[in-house]
Design brief:
Elements (H helix, E strand, L loop, with lengths): L19 E13 L3 E7 L4 E7 L5 H4 L7 E10 L14 E12 L16 H6 L1 H4 L3 H23 L3 E2 L16 E4 L7 E4 L4 H9 L4 E9 L12 E10 L3 H19 L4 E2 L4 E4 H8 L13 E2 L1 H4 L5 H6 L6 E7 L5 H13 L6 E7 L6 E4 L1 H18 L6 E7 L1 H18 L7 E2 L1 E5 L4 E3 L5 E3 L10 H4 L11 E6 L2 E8 L4 H10 L4 H15 L6 E7 H8 L30 H6 L9
Parallel strand pairs: 3-5, 6-9, 11-18, 12-19
Antiparallel strand pairs: 1-2, 1-4, 2-3, 4-5, 7-8, 9-10, 10-24, 13-14, 14-17, 15-16, 15-17, 19-22, 20-21, 22-23, 23-24
Helix pairs in contact: 4-6, 4-16, 5-15, 14-15
């Protein structure tokens, strides 16, 4: 017999009754039923119940073991009585009567339990991540992640893509986040960077004549943590294609992503009609460029109904150019109690409140009447026009926010989501996708300068001619895929012509010399025949987070950092030795 096991803890069933077997694994839990001991023995594959009574030669040894000890069990397979069968386990029809037990690895008192689903502080969980990962839910999440990556690879190969690996040590590149810099020992005072993405390399692969590339790529960004984003590194399904337009990329990506969700989200509906929404419309209708379309609420501009009205706050706002009033419809929300609740939500978000109107039965029985402070101020004609525009009726409500859209769009989006949840309008157990397209190429920074609003390597719509006008009016062939309120994919059709590239960077304040210095390899390549090309990247961590129905991305990453970008298990970041610093010609400047 094998030194450690003849079977795994998921293998045994009724066909093995009477067989002598050997199992190895972790003691999941021990139960003493008055002279009869039970151990749930766990390994990577499953759980098997082990039993010993006072007649068993293994009884004394079993009485000594505790949770999470690693043991080897020799024994005989017995069938369980019908009343004792555990239908939840593949091994639930049998148990193993132990004849011998060998301790392979004893465990000290546990800093957190593995059995059960007890919630423990993040610091404890990350410091003892190897124990945390033994818990059933996390173990299941990691296996889900591994299977998703395997399926992605298979689907990409089936679509005619070829996998290539790109460098991990490279040059710094402005791609929207801070680089992690790596000092060079051989070139004192110079630094490499860990790639924020394989962007330049995958474009060079296209220039080199490889048509359809993909990679399960690690990316490194020094970012502030969020629930749906790792603060240091993440993995993405990186894709690039030659001789394509935007629609070609969409057509190649949808079968892969939709197939993944259909394969790994059984029992949940995966919508196949991936709508396209312009970036500006997404902000207007949903208050976000990653809308949750499970929620049917669509916001609208109702400025015309408040201009010159008796509601002085909005009327005065609308006298200033660029201001708007937008409505958030709330079907079935037509009660003062609900409206007050949403006002409290707005106040938690830092607003004084939200104006509202709700429609109820008129007291004189004449039909529908509008109620609420706004309704009294603007009168019945305007409230009826608003109701008609929003398609609302008896028992419905609408909430209103005003000002410059960029100051309230994010809050309006959160309010929309809250209303959808509160009123039960948001569809459950499904995934809805949308391509967000026509991103602005540039944006104005806080200090009034022009900078790239998204990926600097995207092709401007209209090419070189588009760059001769107002930069803020230029749209890029840039797109994101949104699903259930998360951005899953970002990509674009690339700028493959040097003259357009130089002009695009010039408008963002980068002279030609700077472009040559930062992107010399790519500029040089484009001078020797570059094909039109485009692609995208899908966030693997975020996709798995959605599939696992987890609220935090750390629950689907094997060894994540904490909120302060610290590795509690390995002790990173750590202080280098003086010898290391001398070797790298570095000195730490004291904080001012």
């Amino acid at each position: 017999m094998h030194a450690y096991r003849s079977h795994t803890c998921a293998d045994l069933n009724k066909s093995h009754v009477g067989n002598e077997v050997r199992l190895s694994g972790w003691v999941h839990r021990v139960r003493d039923h008055g002279g009869v001991l039970f151990i749930d023995l766990r390994d990577h594959y499953g759980i098997t119940q082990v039993i010993a009574d006072s007649d068993s030669p293994a009884f004394a040894d079993m009485d000594k073991v505790r949770a999470e000890w690693v043991v080897r069990i020799d024994g005989r397979v017995k069938g369980r009585d019908a009343s004792l069968v555990n239908a939840k386990l593949p091994t639930g029809e049998i148990e193993v009567y132990a004849t011998a037990l060998t301790v392979l690895g004893a465990a000290e008192e546990l800093p957190l339990p593995v059995f059960g689903d007890v919630d423990y502080p993040e610091e404890t969980r990350l410091t003892y991540r190897f124990l945390d990962l033994r818990r059933e839910k996390l173990h299941r999440n990691m296996m889900l992640r591994s299977n998703v990556v395997r399926s992605m690879r298979n689907r990409m190969w089936d679509q005619g893509f070829t996998e290539f690996q790109t460098p991990i040590i490279t040059a710094s590149s402005p791609e929207g986040a801070r680089d992690f810099l790596v000092p060079s020992r051989l070139h004192p005072g110079k630094f490499y960077a860990l790639p924020q993405a394989p962007q330049q390399f995958k474009q060079l692969i296209m220039v080199a004549g490889f048509d359809r590339y993909f990679q399960i790529a690690p990316c490194f960004r020094d970012e502030d943590p969020r629930a749906d984003r790792s603060p240091t590194d993440f993995y993405q399904l990186d894709i690039e294609m030659s001789f394509v337009e935007q629609e070609d990329v969409f057509a190649a990506v949808q079968p892969v992503v939709q197939g993944i969700f259909e394969e790994f989200a059984p029992g949940k509906k995966v919508y196949s009609d991936w709508t396209k929404i312009a970036y500006r419309d997404s902000l207007k209708w949903y208050g976000s460029d990653k809308p949750d379309l499970r929620n049917p609420i669509k916001m609208q501009d109702v400025s015309e109904h408040f201009a010159g009205s008796g509601f002085a706050i909005f009327a005065k706002l609308l006298e200033q150019p660029g201001n708007e009033v937008r409505a958030i419809p709330a079907p079935t929300g037509g009660s003062r109690k609900f409206c007050d609740r949403m006002n409290a939500f707005a106040q938690k978000e830092g607003l004084p409140g939200m104006g509202y109107i709700f429609w109820r039965e008129a007291e004189d029985g004449s039909g529908i009447e509008a109620a609420g402070p706004l309704a009294k101020n603007i009168g019945p004609e305007r409230t009826e026009a608003i109701r008609q525009q929003l398609g609302l009726g008896l028992g419905d409500a609408a909430f209103f926010l005003g000002g410059k859209p960029e100051t309230f769009e994010a809050i309006s989006g959160r309010a929309r989501n809250e209303i959808g949840r509160e009123l039960g309008l948001t569809e459950q157990n499904c995934f809805k996708f949308a391509w967000i397209v026509d991103f602005p190429m540039y944006e104005k920074t806080d200090d009034g300068k022009i900078d790239f609003s998204h990926n600097p390597f995207s092709m401007p719509q209209g090419g070189l001619d588009a760059l001769n006008g107002d930069p803020l009016e230029v749209y890029a062939y840039q797109y994101d895929l949104a699903c259930n309120g998360y951005e899953l994919i970002s990509g674009g059709i690339r700028n493959h012509k040097p003259e357009i590239m130089f002009k695009a960077f010039e408008l963002a304040g980068y002279p030609n010399s700077e472009v040559e210095k930062r992107f010399g390899g790519m500029v040089k390549a484009f001078k020797y025949g570059a094909p039109p090309h485009g692609g995208c990247a899908a966030g693997i961590d975020r996709i798995v987070m959605l599939l696992a129905d987890e609220p935090n991305i750390r629950e689907v990453i094997m060894f994540p950092m904490n909120q302060r970008a610290e590795d509690m298990l390995m002790g990173a970041p750590s202080e280098p030795t003086n010898a290391q610093m001398r070797e790298l010609s570095l000195r730490v400047a004291p904080k001012e």
